[in-house]
Every structure is written in C-alpha cells, then in structure tokens.
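Q: A reviewer asked whether we had any structural model of the full assembly, not just the individual parts. We don't, so I'm hoping you can provide one. Inputs are below.
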Amino acid sequence: MNRNSLRARVTAFYVSMLALALAVFSFAVYGGVSAFLTNSMERTLMHTAESIVADYLVPLNAKGDAWFLSEMSESYPAGISDPFVRVSQGGKILYESGDMREPLVRVSKLSLPSDSASVKTLRRATAETGQSLMIYTLAYASPRGSPIWVETGANMEPLFHLLHSLFLILLVVTPAILVGAAVGGHLLMAGPLRPVVALTEQAEHIGRKELGERLPIIHSGDELERLSLALNRMIERLEEALAHNQRFSADASHELRTPLTIIRGELESLLEIPELQTQAVEGISSALEESDRMSRIVNNLLTISRLDGGGERIEMLPVELTSILKITLDHMSLLADEKGIIITCEAPAPVWVSGDAMRLKQVIVNLIDNAIKYTPEGGSILVRLVAHEEQAILTVTDTGIGIPAASLPFVFNRFYRTDKARSRESGGTGLGLAIVKAICTAHQAAVSIESAENKGAILRVQLPLLHLSPREVSELQSKLPEASAPKEHLASARLSQ
Amino acid sequence: MRILVIEDEQKVSALVKRGLTAERYAVDTTADGLEGLEFFEAYPYDLLILDLMLPRLPGSEVLQRVRRKNDHVPILILTAKDSIDDKVKLFELGADDYLTKPFAFAELLVRVKALLRRGPVNRSSTMRIGDLELDRLTQQVKRGGRRVELTAKEYSLLEYLMQNPERVLSRNMIIEHVWDQSFDGITNIVDVYVRHLRTKVDEGHPFKLIRTVRGTGYMIRRGMES
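A: Here is a predicted structure for the entire assembly that you could use as a starting point for your response.
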C-alpha cells in the first residue's frame, strides 16, 4: 500500500485524531472513576465514624460500657465489619472490630493515635499483611476526660483492583477501537475513491497507448465529475495537437519530397549534357550532394516526428540484441579500421528484449557511428551489452574528444552540434542521437550520456529485459531467419528474384 | 516497351519521361487517376509507374482496379510515404515494387529494368564484366584470372554493382541492398567499403572498373568495350 495515497493519508489523519480523543477520554474516565471511588470511600469512613460518635459515644455515659460494647459488636462485628472500627481512649482500646478476614487484613497492630493528634485526620497506612489502608480518625471530646478516638478504616485493595481492571480495559479497548476504525475507514474510503482509482488507471492506459480513448465520466455531480470532464478535455486537446503534428509530418513529407525529387532529377539530367564545363560539373555535383543530404535530413526528421507523435506503431516482438550487436559491429568494422580505431565488444550472453529489431539496430548503428566520428585516429571504443537487474544495458564508451558539461543536456536534441565545424565536415545530419532518443522513448527505454571534455564519452541505453523460457527461446530461434528480415527487405527481395 | 506514368506533379513526370525516353522506352504520361485508367485500358502497357496522391482517383484505387483486370502488368509505385504500414499495404494491393521520393533517376531505372525483365532472369552462376569474374556458387572473384580475396560485405557490394553494369547506383540503393535501412544516414559506410573494394579490384590494373559518379553514387563499367 502506498503510504502517500490519499486513502492512507485520510485514514491516518482521522485515526490519529481519534487516538487523541480516545486518550483524553481514557484519562478522564480513569481519573474520574479513581476520584469518585476514593471520595466515596472517604465519605463512608467519615460517615461511619460520625455515626459511632453520635449513636454510641454520646449516650455512653448514660447507658454504660456494657451497652456500648454489645451495641458496637452487633453493629460492627469483629472480623466481619468493613470498614473496620477501633475506639480508644488514652491509649486504651474501648472496642475494635479487629483483623478483617477473607482476605486477611491485619489491622490490630496499627499504632493508636496519641492525644496530641488533630481532631479529624485522614491517613494512609499499610496493614501488616501488606494491603494499603485508608484510615479516618475522629476525636470525640468525652465528658469523662481525655478524648475518645474513633478510627474507621478500609482496605484500598479492591479499589486499586477495580482501577487496574479499568486501566487494562482501556488499554485493550482503545487500540482495538483504533484498529477497527482504521480498517473500517480504509474500506469505507475505497468507495468514494474507487472512481479516482479507475480514472487513474484509465489515464495511465491512455498515456501508454492510444489517445483515442476517453476517461470514464463520474456522474457524481461533485469534484470528481469536474475532474474527469477536465481531464477528458485535456486529452482531447492533446489528441488534436498530436493529430495536427502527424498531419503536418505527412504533409511536410509529401511537400518536401516532391520538390527534392525534381531538384535531383533536374540536376541529374543536367549532368548528362555532353562536354559540360568542369566548373559546371563541380557545381551541379555539389548541389546533388546537398540535395542528397537534405533528403536524408527530411527522412530522419520525419522518422523522429513519427516516433515522437506515436504515428509509427512500434511492433514489440522478442528480439535478441547480442546477435544484432555483433552483426552490426561486423558490418561497421571497416569504418573503424579506416581511422585505426579498435572496437572491443563485450557481450557474453544472449540478451532478449521486446522491440522492433530494425529500429533497435538503428540505435546501435547510430551510437557506433557517433563514437567513431568523435574518436580521433588510433583511439578505441568499448561496446558492452549485459543483462543486469531486469534491464538490458548497452554502453558505448569511446576515447574521443568528449563533450563539455554545458552541452551534455542538449546532445539528444535535434540538430544540436557541440562543434559545428567538425561535425558538418563529417557529413552528418545532426539527427543521429535525436533518432536514438526517439527510438528509445518509443521502446520505454532510457538513454543517457556521461562525458567530460577530452575524456571520451559513455552512452548508455537501458531497455526492459524480456524473460523467456528456454523453450520459447528455441522456438524463436527456429523462426529466426524470417524474424530477422525486416519488412523493408520486401522490396529488394522482390527486386532480386 | 511501353510505359505509362501516372503522376500529378508535372515536373516529376516530365523528368521520368525524359529519362526513360533516353533509354528508348515509349512513355505516356497523365496527371489524373481516372484518365490513367482509361489510358491503361486503351493500350497494352508493359509497365505502370503510379503516384499515390492523384486527383479524381487515388493511386491505391487505380492499383486495385488495374489488378482486377490485369494480373500480369508490373506496377511500380512512387510514394512520398515510407512508413512500414504503407509499404505492406501496397504489396497487399498488388504493387510489385515501390520507390520513395526523392529518388535518384538511376534508382528508378534499375527498378524499371528489373520489373521488365522479371520472368526470364539470367540465373547463370558466373557474372563477367571485362576481365572481372564473379562466381555466385563458390563466391569467388577473379580479375584477369587472379583470385581477389573479398570480405562478405565487399562481395555483396561487388555482386550488386555487377548485376547492374553501366548503371549508377546511389548510396541509398547500395545501403538498402547490401546493408539495411538501419544504416540510413550513415552513407559514408558505402564510401569506405567502395574504397576498399576498389583497392582490391582495380589496383594494379590500368582500367578502373569501379567509378564514382559525384553527387549520385557508384557504377561499374565494362572495361574492354570502352
């Protein structure tokens, strides 16, 4: 899942808001319950102490000790009474309910309050058996002399236990709610976002293939409908622009080629005139050469326009690059020999890619030609073709004049020349690398250059690798003679029948 | 031999007519598809040269109608389009060959000759030009009786030149025959190979068989006749 997707971000946002709210809520509940329980315990203790004073200590003088003891042991029976009570005077115990049982809470060893203590105190103590206790002490100014101390106490363990349970519940339930909300929200978000996903997929599909298709219109009346309509209008304008470009290419092709044919023909027939002056022959021949170059430029330009505009359908067939590379290098070896350039080829294994064999060969031809052109006599060129991590990587490294850093971004542009005089002299059209770029783009391949002035250049083409089973490879190889003959050969094949 | 040229560009058809007439063909021209079809029905032509963009009736339609009536006449298409789809479609419609504009007249002539002699083709295994001999079976080349060692490309180049003696072959034609269209634009490769071939074939011989025709291309000449 993409962490940056709208769906993930919206889910993450509201889940964190919910987490914050739940955290605040949990603290409030815990704090509230804790305060309430403590308060009510305190109130119970105070109330018990006050009722002992009012019910049993005030009438003590009138009714006597025996009555007091029997009433107390009836109301606060020993070992059972909760809270436990203890009534003492001057360090002498008048009554105590004693240790609580089940569970055992030993309170009998707690020290007695001294007469100097304040009239009302609430304190915490620890029983001998380890439990936390809350003890309320109330002094009753007895008419019989020293004050009578009434102590009421309760075991705080059940309260702590309750709070602990509450804590555990909150600890488990809060994350569970968050997870549930996240999953539910994420699923819920899929609904409204589904049209967006469909829109994106269709847009990607259109981007890769034909512009003739349109995006699905979302009839929701909301922002998404507007978005889909706007995108469709944009695609329409793109399609128009492309169609215009392609029409222009076709028109330009016809319009330029016909006059070029005529210029050529007229010049050729002029050359047929017998006893033409040498100067005239020179001039006409030179004009013929230039018309030839112009034809090549027109052809190359149209090739690029068609590749760029998607006007030329690239037939993606399995192609074995290594053999094409070796054959091409063989065909071009004399060009390198002429300049005393040594070409080394490192292509250890067959490399299969998907593409148009003729066009891919053109890439190799143009790259090698380019390297030979810019490498001085006696230099060397290294050509490598390897399969590396899902990619076929072709590199052409030369020891040539290199390209200044400032020019690097432009070398794949049409008609870009780093050294105008030199490259024109070598008769190029200035379109070799632009064609390489256009073919690579049409093949979803990347082409890049590394170079420094006088340090040579490395041109690199990266094509998606095609994985074939050994059986597919042998099937393809059995069909190879047919597959490797480009359709352009149809004409010449017929001609030489 | 009578040839019909259907081409709406007056200057192009005039050039073609002038060149072919000089080669002793009888040439009729028309600028209109429908009229071309009428011409074709009226006279027995040996070859049809057809432009694709025509007024009144497009070239592809003319091609189809001619094929419906006559299976045999060779048809050469002149076209300004050169995408693969277009070419394949042309052959499916029954064209025998096509030529993309702009073309060298020499190229047109070679194709016309090839189309007209289709049928009884000289299949003999040995070709001779002057004292140069090329054996297609053994792929051996001799000049004046002495073996000339050639690489595979040099051999193909020489074979192509010898198939068309006394004809100027443009660099494009040579590229398309000996290499393929991937090498389009790298025409200096032809110059380099011809130079090497020339060294092997002509060096030490007073008559140079392989000639450069500036601005156009190369040709091989019959040495003994001149």
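A: Points you may want to mention in the reply: The helical segments of chain B are 10-22, 33-42, 59-69, 84-93, 105-116, 152-163, 171-178, 188-202. The CA atoms of residues 131 and 209 of chain B lie 10 Å apart.
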